[in-house]
Every structure is written in C-alpha cells, then in structure tokens.
Design brief:
Layout: H1 4-26, E1 31-36, E2 42-43, E3 47-55, E4 63-68, E5 71-72, E6 89-97, E7 101-110, E8 120-126
Parallel strand pairs: 2-8
Antiparallel strand pairs: 1-3, 3-6, 4-5, 4-7, 7-8
C-alpha cells in the first residue's frame, strides 16, 4: 500500500511529541555543573580530581556519564552513592588521568526515566609532561621471488 510508512509516521509524531513533553514535565533531567577544575586551566601533572555538582530537578538521578576526549570513562555509570532529594545537590569527585596537551572533560547525568541532561564541558591543558617516544622500524625488502612475475622492478 503506497504511503503507509509516511502515514504511520505522521500519526506517531504527534503522540511522540506529547509523550516527550509529558516525560520532560514528569521527570526532568538533572542539572550538572563542573565545580573544579576551571575552564582553560593548565596543569603540570596528569592526575586531577574533577568535582561535579549534580542537582536533582525532580526526575531523580540514575546515571552519570563522564567523557574524556570523547571517550566514556568506565566505573562512573550507575549512581551507587547517595541520591539527592528533588531540588537538592550532591557533589561527586572523579579522578582522571589527563594526556599531554588539550583535554576535554564532559559530564552529563540521566534522570530515573533515562532523560539525559545537557552536557557540561571543560577544556584543560597539560603542559610540560611529554613521554619520550621511540619508534623502531625494521624493514626487509625482497627483490627476487621463486615466481618471476612477483619480482620487484623498482627496488
């Protein structure tokens, strides 16, 4: 039946819009702030402690998502600590090992209905800490093969 997909999607959009608005009203996402470090801060060491303030806006608190340079850091997912009451805040400390140069830390949180908050970001910089990297390459070139069709003309 031509147009069946379009018709079904059109009718569901209104229902989805109503469901999303009611979910946001009934279970708003938490508010997340990064207390320390400050934006643009420079460090001369790699290990830092990120302090986040997470406020329950009425939807509860289920999970915190912590990203370092776009990669999710394990071990900070489910809220094992005390959950705040609506309107109250909790402070969480996250030890993070930075890499030399620019680092982007991003934190967001989910309500109990799995609605994610807006992510809060900080750009941090590590100065003067560089690993000495040595790259060893061993290359072997074979010019003559048993099959003469495989012989290299340009070596």
């Amino acid at each position: 039946q031509p147009g069946i997909l379009g018709n079904s999607l059109r009718s569901d959009l209104r229902l989805n819009d109503i469901n999303i608005k009611s979910k946001l009203k009934d279970s708003p996402p938490p508010r997340v702030e990064i207390i320390s470090p400050t934006a643009g801060e420079h460090f001369d060491h790699r290990e830092i402690d990120v302090v986040a303030k997470i406020t329950d806006e009425g939807g509860g608190l289920d999970e915190v998502k912590l990203l370092h340079n776009g990669k999710r850091l394990p071990g900070h997912d489910r809220m094992a600590r005390t959950k705040p009451k609506p309107g109250k805040s909790v402070f969480h400390h996250y030890p993070i090992e930075l890499v030399p140069g620019k680092n982007v830390i991003s934190i967001s949180a989910f309500s109990e209905e799995r609605i994610e908050s807006e992510a809060t970001q900080r750009e941090l910089f590590v100065d003067g800490v560089h690993d000495d990297i040595t790259c060893h390459v061993m290359a072997i070139g074979i010019n003559k093969y048993k099959n003469p069709n495989l012989d290299l003309n340009y070596v």
